[in-house]
Write a structure and sequence with these properties.
The complex is a heterodimer of chains A (254) and B (288).
Chain A lengths: L4 H11 L6 E3 L4 H11 L6 E4 L3 E3 L13 H4 L4 E2 L2 H10 L4 E4 L3 E3 L4 E2 L2 E2 L8 E2 L6 H7 L2 E6 L6 E2 L16 H5 L6 E6 L2 E6 L2 E7 L5 H6 L7 E7 L5 H10 L11
Parallel strand pairs in A: 1-2, 1-5, 5-10, 6-11, 10-12, 14-15
Antiparallel strand pairs in A: 2-3, 3-4, 6-7, 8-9, 12-13, 13-14
Helix pairs in contact in A: 1-2, 2-8
Chain B lengths: L5 E3 L10 H10 L4 E7 L3 H7 L3 E8 L9 H9 L6 E4 L2 H13 L3 E4 L7 H5 L3 E4 L6 E6 L5 E9 L5 E2 L7 H7 L2 E9 L2 H6 L4 E3 L4 E6 L17 H10 L3 H13 L4 H8 L1 H10 L10
Parallel strand pairs in B: 1-2, 1-8, 2-3, 3-4, 8-10, 10-12
Antiparallel strand pairs in B: 5-7, 6-7, 8-9, 9-11
Helix pairs in contact in B: 2-3, 4-6
The chains are: A alpha/beta (254), B alpha/beta (288).
């Protein structure tokens, strides 16, 4: 079966949404993961969008941004950022999605800048948006990003979105009320977090533990029983391809 | 408008972005502005590349559906066309800063960004502990923009403005500002406003000018009026990879045109299609 890395990531991300949960959806691949989850195992999931929208059914067509008119029509609530973020801060939101340019083994993400001086960076990245808030305040964090050695690094140069800091009880010590990454889904595999550190659970069928290790900037740890990632079912693949028929998000850069 | 002032704009995040306002600021050659906003799609990128900006106070700067902002990157990495500084925020902290400004509070306490490097990079947040339970907090100081720009569907001649669709941080920014400028798709009779006052995002007491400017938000969408022109964002992304490409794009779409009407005319059938697909009959006053 010809499955793109994007499609595999979407299918995996959809599995992370549980029925009845309130989820900060975000953009790009997570938007499609929300569609898959709603139409399969999580029909009662609720999506929150940081510009001030709440939906109990996905938008009927592909979204390029969360503010596209099809995401507003059919919403159950159109409000303000502060209400959505307020629910997040109260602890009313069970899970949130986020992507990043750089992540380290403790799940800290950098989307701000590459280089030592934030005001004179070697690469200026777009910034937090709502990502740092989701990472700080959601019940758990689902991270999706491309996998290569320059992106999965020992230590990020700037913590935009906090993961587990330096590990252990760091989140509690700095005062974060809850949360932290529960899973890191990349173009090569799926990591869980143990003691605040990423551990490989599955590798995608196109790759191997050795290739994942060679593409990871920290000393890779693997779970006992590490295995290939389960391919999406034909039903799930049909939902993904029905929603993004041109592969704008799921076949980006391929 | 004066050089050097702070302007909040692009406050609903991806929709209702007042590109017409930004383009006129660029045509007027304003300099040393501080831009305040959460995620303003390519609006900040355009104003930075045109040399209007000394600082952005923002959570994000780039091109939402296409990727990084080339002009923002050139300014930060190479000082082209000039050096700018960034005062980093998240979407929540910039909302809270403007909310504090809107309600006359000196700051708002929050638990977001504890453990993030954003507070240190921002430089204005204060670490504190709650006087009630001794838990760690960040104090986010109020922001009060000199001018806030609000794009919306309907406003009356007095400036009472109604925005249909998500508000993002627009209302906080409007109420926190010294002055508000409204760009309205339609200037409507007072009864349209008073029949549905829940839709009013900012009252006339804050508004110094109402501009009747149809199509002010293209290529971003305006709910029930026109859809998002995705391809326009992607064309901008491809065209502005180099300084020369950026300058040519600016000349073609901004400085070489006299006003918004000429811009819409240049869009031609593309604009008609966006209105046809994104437009919907305005339902007007519910009790009229």
């Amino acid at each position: 079966m010809d499955v793109s890395a994007g499609e595999l990531m979407v299918a995996q991300a959809a599995r992370e949404i549980r029925d009845g949960e309130k989820v900060f959806v975000g953009m790009r691949l997570p938007l499609i993961a929300f569609v898959v989850a709603k139409r399969t195992h999580a029909p009662n999931a609720i999506g929150l969008f940081e510009l001030g929208l709440m939906r109990d059914e996905p938008a009927p067509e592909l979204l390029y941004t969360m503010g596209d008119p099809p995401n507003v029509d059919g919403a159950i609530w159109s409000a303000r950022t502060i209400e959505m973020m307020g629910m997040l801060q109260r602890g009313d939101v069970e899970a949130g999605f986020i992507g990043g340019a750089e992540i380290d083994k403790h799940g800290n993400l950098n989307t701000t800048a590459i280089g030592a001086d934030r005001q004179r960076p070697s690469v200026a990245l777009p910034g937090s948006g709502g990502g740092a808030d989701i990472a700080s305040l959601a019940g758990r964090l689902i991270v999706i990003m491309p996998h290569d050695k320059r992106r999965l690094v020992e230590r990020v140069s700037f913590i935009t979105s906090p993961g587990y800091g330096t590990g252990g009880d760091w989140r509690q010590r700095v005062g974060l009320p809850r949360g932290g990454p529960s899973v890191l889904i990349t173009t090569l595999g799926v990591f869980r977090f143990q003691g605040g550190e990423a551990v490989l659970e599955t590798y995608h069928p196109t790759t191997s533990v050795e290739e994942v290790r060679a593409s990871t900037g920290w000393d890779l740890k693997v779970l006992p029983g590490v295995r290939p990632t389960e391919l999406p079912s034909p039903e799930v693949l049909a939902i993904i391809r029905g929603y993004d028929p041109q592969g704008f998000w799921t076949r980006r850069g391929e | 408008m004066r050089d050097g002032i702070s302007i909040a704009l692009g406050l609903a995040l991806e929709p209702a972005i007042p590109f017409a306002f930004a383009h006129e600021v660029i045509r007027q050659g304003r300099r040393d502005l501080e831009l305040i906003g959460p995620i303003s799609d390519v609006l900040f990128d355009q104003m930075i590349g045109a040399g209007c900006v000394r600082q952005i106070t923002a959570a994000w700067a780039g091109n939402v559906s296409a990727g990084l902002g080339h002009a923002y990157r050139r300014a930060m990495e190479q000082g082209i066309p000039r050096r700018i500084t960034v005062r980093d925020h998240s979407n929540f902290t910039i909302a809270q800063a403007l909310f504090a400004g809107a309600v006359g509070a000196p700051y708002l306490p929050t638990r977001t960004l504890l453990g993030s490097d954003i507070p240190q990079a921002n430089g204005t947040f204060v670490r504190a502990t709650s006087p009630f339970d001794a838990s760690p907090l960040l104090l986010i100081p109020a922001i009060e923009p000199d001018v806030t720009v609000v794009a919306c569907q309907n406003a009356d001649a007095e400036g009472n403005a109604q925005l249909f669709g998500p508000w993002g941080i627009t209302q906080e920014a409007a109420l926190a500002a010294k002055k508000v400028i409204v760009l309205a798709e339609h200037v409507v009779p007072r009864q349209v406003i008073t029949s549905q006052p829940n839709l009013t995002i900012v009252p006339s007491t804050k508004v110094v000018a109402v501009v009747h400017e149809p199509g002010a938000c293209h290529p971003s969408p305006l709910q029930h009026q026109y859809g998002r022109d995705h391809e326009f964002f992607h064309e901008y992304h491809r065209a502005t990879r180099t300084v020369e490409g950026f300058d040519a794009w600016m000349k073609e779409w901004v400085t070489g045109l006299p006003d918004r009407a000429a811009y819409l005319k240049k869009l031609g059938g593309r604009w008609d299609e966006l209105r046809r697909r994104g437009g919907r009959q305005w339902f007007g006053p519910v009790d009229a």
